[in-house]
Amino acid sequence: MFKAKILIVGPSESGKSVLANFLSDATESIGGEYSPTQGVRFESCWPALMKDSSGVVLVFNPDMPSHLKEIETWYSSFVSTQGVQDSQCLLIAHHKPGSGADNRRLGLSPQLSKLNLIHSNLEEDPEEVRQEFRRYLGSVVKSLSESREREEMSIIN
Length: 157
Hints:
four-stranded parallel beta sheet, globular
């Protein structure tokens, strides 16, 4: 059995906590009043958080114009500089309740366009979000398994 450490990162008020709680089955209801959480804003802590991570989920709110630029910084900090493969990443355009989710073209940078992108709207189609995340998690675990197998084979040979 593999343990996977998946980081969920992104700009403030992008929906990271809501998605994390939903995907971990930590909450039974969707929606409700917004209650901000305290994120780790000190970049000096990031290397400790990134240690032994298996994947990165980048979350942003496509209805907030500043998030498109900010998500590039998060990608650079948590993916590019750490040598995480694009296949180990998931980009989630999280639409908040009542936003009238618009799955239009987002004008992503070339580096972000290479990532698997899903639009999440927990009001309209929560199970689709859960299924997409499970597919992503399955690919991360498969990658871990293949990596471990290569490592074992190199020891044997």
